[in-house]
Amino acid sequence: MASIYLDHAATTPIHEEVQERMMAVMNQHYGNPSSIHAFGRDGRKLVDQARTTVAEAINAPFSTIVFTSGGTEANNLAIFGSAYAYQNQGKHIITTAIEHHAVLHPCEQLEKDGFDVTYLPVDELGKVKVEDVKAALRDDTILVTIMSVNNEIGVTQPIQEIGALLDDHQAIFHTDAVQSFGVYKLDVQSLGVDLLTASSHKIYGPKGVGFLYKKEDLHLQQQLHGGEQERKWRSGTENTLAIAGFDEAIKVLEREREERDRHYEALQNRLLMELEQQGITFTINGDLNARVPNIINISFPNTEVEMFLTNLDLAGVAVSSGSACTAGSIDPSHVLKAMYGEEDPRLTNSIRFSFGIHNTEEEMAIVAEKIKPIIDRLKKVVT
Q1: The predicted structure's pLDDT at residue 47
Q2: In this structure, are residues 170 and 188 in contact, taking their beta carbons and an 8 Å threshold?
Q3: What is the pTM of this model?
Q4: Sign of the CA dihedral with 307 first, then 313, 320, and 76 last
Q5: What Pfam families has UniProt attached to this entry (predicted)?
Q6: Which backbone phi and psi does 310 adopt, to 5 degrees?
Q7: Do 160 and 191 contact (CB within 8 A), yes or no?
């Protein structure tokens, strides 16, 4: 039985061209980029090439890119680094209730350390209101951190409008762009952000590498102490192999972006059409008009998400609830809870489908065919 992978928001396979590039680097380039001899200079050249690629991709200066071990470390450096660097100007932070845990958990830790954090609500469409950000702003607000695209429902947030709002305020503006970097052409200048984070393994690159864009005049308190790599912002020998893979993944993305987006849109439309033709009752969670084409979160009434996921896995379909899995149990989605409240049945019957470049429209028909008997069985169990 051929498996169908529809969990690309969790991670993507490594693109064939990226694999080829990494194999070449693995075999030929092993010098430490901090070494001054020829082998080290060779490694440094690879890192600098990748830094140039990243900078050009988001319209940023070369010197503003800091390589990290991934999106989580980049978010932690952005949030802890700016909070501690500017705490003499205030200790108030604004974020939203639907952020990834790589943002929420650092904010929760800062609360324990004496900072005051405002968690903004979202509406039933999964969007934060710019006027709510404005109302929450205080003279002592030093950081606003709001994601570009939500990883569970695929809804976009008004980042450019918030950036304009903060233009005359002291608050540093950070956006977690992990889910938007592979879909949208991002421009940090027009977005008005001071900090932006992204990750390689969401765009068909290797795991274990990401970057933080840090505006040139911005200071951060260093979080990792050791050497003076990454202009002292992030100590530790650079992962040259992964960085080179990330470099290649971005180059392929820039070349294929529009084609990929059209493909994702076609896959999403085909899946929804096939579900309807199967007579399956469902609703879509989140704003239908402000979303990325590669993520869709669907509620299937009278089902239970854990049993649904297990049955789909047994049928050869890999999807996700988009929520945390701990010790074998699936917690209700904090994103859907923020949208609908704690008692809404959509918290426990919603599935995230996230599409990839290797998926086909024929697979969408197969998925719908597999979902139909599963739902029929689960309805009998639930009712």
Answers
A1: 96
A2: no
A3: 0.95
A4: positive
A5: Aminotran_5
A6: -65, -45
A7: yes
